[in-house]
Amino acid sequence: MARLLILSPEKIGFEVKIAIVGGGFGLYGYLPALLQIPNATPILQTRYQERLKARTDISQFYNDIEWVSDDDALLETSEGIIIALPPMEQYMWAKKCLGFKNISLMLLEKPLAPNPILANELLNDLESSGKKFRLGYNFRYTLWGQDILKNAKSIESIVWNFRAHHYTQNVQTWKRQHDDGGGAIRFYGIHLIALLAELGYNDASYSEVNEKQENEIESWDTELVGSGLPPCRISVASNSDNTKFIVRDGNGHVYSLLQPFQTLLTRKDALMDQRIPFLTQGLQDMLSKDQFFYDWYHKTNLLWSNIEKRTLIS
Length: 314
Hints:
alpha/beta, Rossmann fold, 6-stranded parallel beta sheet, globular
């Protein structure tokens, strides 16, 4: 079996079949991440076969997958599911999965839904189902994120500048569209919102976005607040040529990176997505720990909603 040597996750104490839905990040992100976990078998629909074989970074995993012919077989065979689809499609797939008793584990990408209202509705349904689930808020698994959560417990400022793939390649995609769950707040900023909600931030003193054109939010500036916490100033620019990710925590320590998921991958794994080790940690967390993050996820949705209520367009 072709396993990556990025980290050494613990072997879970049971065999588990995990379906993956999504032919983009589901394939080049979550598939290699899942294959890091012994005893976990990925199940994919045959419609993804040609796409997988065409990618040099993941084609090696073809024989590690259990292939099924259609969506019904996928859902009936699986004990868990990873959904990596555009937010509205994810919302509908998640609702469908809640009806399958054999599916007890669910991992959903961020944002949970295109907007805070639908996200809150789906979160309530997930909680009521009793299924164990995780959302793709993965900054908590980075070294800098872990350090802040454990030691500083607050953040003074974050600057995140980059040029998104859809700008460098001039791709028309939902990731540009605010109403579809894309843009600087809903697609990128939600990572920061989740981390800050975990630290206890619950509101914004101001929030302002810049639209490239209608419904296309390129940048976001805000100040988040929480009881007993220093205000946190955030600037996210998703179409910038001045690439940087700089965090100043509540103790005055500065983390300066090119991007938040920066890692030191081996030469052998240099073609793999740098987020894979953190995806694996999230999956391992879901499979091996009896933790339910209901409170954190609800606080994330509340902070997201409060931010958007205060957001002005410039």
